[in-house]
Amino acid sequence: MKILSKLLFLLTFLFSFTFAAEIATIDSVTKDTATPKTAEIGVPKKQAVWIKLEGDVDPAMYEFCARAIGEALDKKPDYIVFEINTFGGRLDAAFDLVDTIMAVKGAETIALVKKKAISAGSLIALACKRLYMLEATTIGDCAPIVQGGDGTPQIVGEKIQSPLRAKFRNLAQRNGYPELLASSFVTPELEVLELTTKLDKGTATERDTTLIIEGKKFAVLDSAEKKFWGSPKILVKEGELLTMTDKEAEELGFSKGTFKSREDFETKLAIERKSEVETNTGEKIAGAIAAISGLLLILGFGALYIEFKTPGFGMFGIIGIILIGIVFFGQFAPQLDGYFPVILLIAGVILFLVEIFVMPGTFLFGIGGIACMIIALIMSVDTTNIPEYVPEAVETTFDATPWLFGLFFVLSSAAIALIFPVAASKYLIPLLPEGWTPMLKTDMESAVSPTEDVKTVSIGAIGVAKTFLRPVGQASFTMPDGSTKLFDVQTHGEIIEAGQRVKVESVQEGHIWVALENSELGSRS
Asked: What is the pLDDT of residue 151?
């Protein structure tokens, strides 16, 4: 019996030990798996790339957006966020932009209305998979308009509205937006009603059901159906276009949420890593040109008109060609980013040559050429290669110090570049042997002007222009003794071709003022 009791005790001890071990094992497994469950409940952190779409919707915005999407996809983000703030713009550019956004794969496209997404801006917003809005923002009103004969905007006809409505329906079907309400962005004749009724009244499953219907379809319902639905709520009145605030857009099923700031939006979507695609120099230039293109065209054609009304070809013709050329250049500026220093350098040289050989004495083209070359030099400087002159071992809390030393380096280099040529031309080049120096060694004190003293010409004298007077040039006059002399002359803005007869109008302070012999100005002198 004693042996049997000991065996029972031993078996009981082993059983209790094994059971305790199993409990401990189960408990440890439960504690180990608790952390993964918590991690699954938490929202994983996301990466987003921001693309700002602000200003007029035009080809420049499309070019920027297409490039930005390509750069964003290279980063393999979870979201591509389009921050929209626009009153709209060109319909063709909007269609191209929408097609580009809809073709994005590998990242979810999100629209965040910063201030407004009006007209083409609303089309771009609905092209994204999800739409969010900041507080006090608006979206809608996408009726295509043109300028009428009296200058007032007019909504275009069905020829344009029909494909635009189809585009909105396509976006609504693709991204889950209310289809009928999306169509009311475009068509003012469309009345949209909301019908609400209760199903299973008086039961535990009682619920509201809502139907959004066109006003014309509600009007043809029979009395029993109208009684079933009750009085409708007008969402969009006939003759109006749907334009919504942030709260209305959320209530009607367009917006997924409204936020106070961009930071709140990023917190809600668990965006931890973010970056932004900036506009490059070419896109900035294209946008600036597009903003004033109308003014440039008016001034350009105006200058050409003045040129056609004056003899020869002069300054107004060149200005007109340049202004119109700038407008067309703006269409290709985004593709030329990186080549602007070379383009400006070539333009500067051309303007300088125009000043020397075509329009001497005007200074306008000379100053423009120098400005272009200076800007080209500044743009070609790589700031990353500027020495900072800050030892690595030296700790400093003043972040601007490297830039101050860099600025000192640039200014010192500029001073040396200015002083060295002057000193070399004065002290070194004259020491070169005859035939090797490009400088004239003739004593300037003994040099004489090829033109005569203005005191020898009288008012009313008739001469011939030897060069183009634009307005400065040279003309020859016959003296009382029968000899012919050459003089520096100028006109009061009138352009006179070489070979035309001129008449001296006045001689003042060493200047000879002339006009055409048969002009009204010349006849009054």
From this structure: 60
Q: What pLDDT sits at residue 438?
A: 57
SS3 call for 101: helix
Closest CA to 156 of 145, 171, 168, 170: 145
User: What is the predicted pLDDT for the residue at 192?
Assistant: 93
511-516/108-118 β-pairing: unpaired
Q: What is the pLDDT of residue 4?
A: 40
Distance CA 78, CA 113 (A): 19
Token pair 């220093």 in the structure block, residue: 341
State how far the Cα of 8 lies from the Cα of 15, in Å rounded to an integer: 10
Phi-psi region at 484: left, alpha or beta (left = phi > 0; alpha = psi -120 to 50):
beta
**Interhelix angle for 281-291 vs 315-332, to 10°?**
120
What are 413-439's pLDDT values in tens digits? 777 777 877 777 777 777 777 666 655
CA–CA separation, 311 and 316 (whole Å):
11
d(CA 104, CA 95): 15
Q: Is the dihedral of CA 172, 176, 177, 178 positive or negative?
A: positive
Are residues 187 and 216 in contact, defined by beta-carbon separation less than 8 angstroms? no
Query: Is pLDDT larger for residue 113 or for residue 349?
Result: 113
Nearest to 132 by CA among 304, 258, 281, 302: 258
Token pair 């709260």 in the structure block, residue: 247
Q: What percent of the chain is predicted at pLDDT more than 70?
A: 77
* Residue 96, amino acid: D
Measured CA to CA, the distance from residue 200 to residue 254 in angstroms comes to: 29
Q: How many CB atoms lie within 10 A of CB 427?
A: 9
Burial class (CB in 10 A: 0-12, 13-18, 19+), 429: middle
Six-digit token pair at 291? 């903003």
Cα gap 469→499, rounded to integer Å = 10
pLDDT digits (tens, 9 = 90+) for 292-301: 888 888 998 9
- Torsion from C-alpha of 49, 56, 335, 276, nearest 10 degrees: -20
Residue 481 parent element (H or E): none
Contact status, residue 81 vs residue 110, Cβ threshold 8 Å:
yes
> Residue 333: is its pLDDT beyond 50?
yes
Identity (one letter) of the amino acid at 293?
A: S
Interatomic CA distance for residues 143 and 222, integer angstroms: 33
Count CB atoms within 10 A of the CB of residue 470: 22
**Which pLDDT band, with edges at 50, 70 and 90, does 311 fall under?**
low
Do residues 388 and 411 lie in contact, with contact meaning Cβ atoms separated by under 8 Å?
A: no
Rounded CA separation 523/525 (Å) = 6
- Taking 3-state DSSP, the helix, strand and coil percentages for the chain, each rounded to the nearest 5, stand at 50, 20, 30
User: Which is it for the CA torsion 445, 450, 451, 455, positive or negative?
Assistant: positive
